[in-house]
Amino acid sequence: MVSFLENFIFYYPLAMSIAWIVGALYFYYRREAGTSRRLPVLKEYPFVSILIPAHNEEDSIENTVLAALASTYPEFEIIVVDDGSKDSTPQILARLAHTQPRVRALIMKQNMGKPSALRYGLLACRGEIVVTIDADAYLDPNALRWMVSHFLTGPRVGAVTGNPRVRNRTTLLAKIQVGEYSSIIGMIKRTQRILGKVLTVSGVIVAFRKRALLDVGMWDHDMITDDINVTWKLEKQFWDIRYEPNALCWILVPETLRGLWKQRVRWAQGGGEVIRRHLDVWLDWRQRRLWPIYIEYVVSVLWSYTYVIFGFLWLLSFMLPLDFPVVRILPDWKGTVLVTMSLIQSLVALYIDSRYEKNIMWYHFWVIWYPFFYWLIAALATVWATPKALLRKMGKPAIWTSPDRGLQGKL
């Protein structure tokens, strides 16, 4: 049993790393390498609504709106939904709406949560294509053109998720996350797109077909992570979800341990809530392509619990004599192989993303800290958040607070 648990702890992430590397490289050489980054020429330019939910975002919201206004796409509007902010966000939005004809502001008196803000904002959108971005995100001027091009290929394209890039890189935590967004998030989306099931759009930048959102009942107001849940709802109704790496969006990431911990707990809780809510996929044979994703998530939760529990016992064995065999968290060659594979994965991911950021390869030096630090953070967050996800009483609005925007978010 001890040998089995040791193998599970180390070979599960090894297998997933290999799968992501193979899938990402296949996507890259099939759909990215050898193609021009020249803007697609569209036969038509359907009207686009950019929807931005905000809560206490006085430090960032104006720059976010101005960046969106710089889009090269000819036909768009910007709708900002202020969700009961207590700072000067409503006043800033009122001024922007008065001076910028493309901008409209919806001011909600009470904080009802991000999903509710998105629902209200969607009803005010005039465009059939709705692009949602976070209140700290700088939309690349050409992002709309890249995403809209997918919707023109067929009526069943329900969503196109973009490529978030880290813009605050002043601390070790932020620099590590530059590699993480490439080697984990970007690789997973490329691999899932090849398999035909993108299971999480990036809420920080994603375009939806409005009709698809209405078809699935929009965002559920009681889910802690709106992006994961709405993705599953779209997939269950067989809407096509795509990944467009050319649709860039520059974001702020947490630069404090406290902020990072809160973010990862929220992500883990949101994943658990989605698995709980969509348990019915096992009752419908048509949803069988979602079954492997469901199983992989459950296995990842089991891995986190195994890693944390036996890691604690392993550390305890150095201080107290234990009467039972202890799983070694740092076993000889297995740990070396796993760390080496993680570095190879990061190197491949940064090479792929160097197409979009010329100097990103320099961040491979900082990625060496990822296996030792982020695996532990992710595992601890999953162990902490899973009971909350399974036991939380659903039905009430998922109220939000402004996340850690990093040091640059305070400038």
Your description of this structure?
Helix 1 (2-32) crosses helix 6 and helix 10 crosses helix 13. This protein is 50% helix and 13% strand. The protein is globular and about 70 Å long. It has helices spanning 2-32, 61-69, 89-99, 114-124, 143-151, 172-195, 210-215, 226-236, 257-277, 291-316, 332-353, 364-367, 370-391, and strands at 48-54, 76-83, 103-108, 129-133, 138-139, 157-166, 205-209, 240-251. With 411 residues, the chain is an alpha/beta fold. Strand 1 (48-54), helix 2 (61-69) and strand 2 form a beta-alpha-beta unit. The chain starts with a helix and ends in a 20-residue tail after the last helix. It has an 8-stranded mixed beta sheet, with helices on both faces. The chain contains 13 helices and 8 strands. It has 2 domains: 2-18 and 284-392, no CATH class; 22-256, Spore Coat Polysaccharide Biosynthesis Protein SpsA, Chain A (Alpha-Beta Complex).
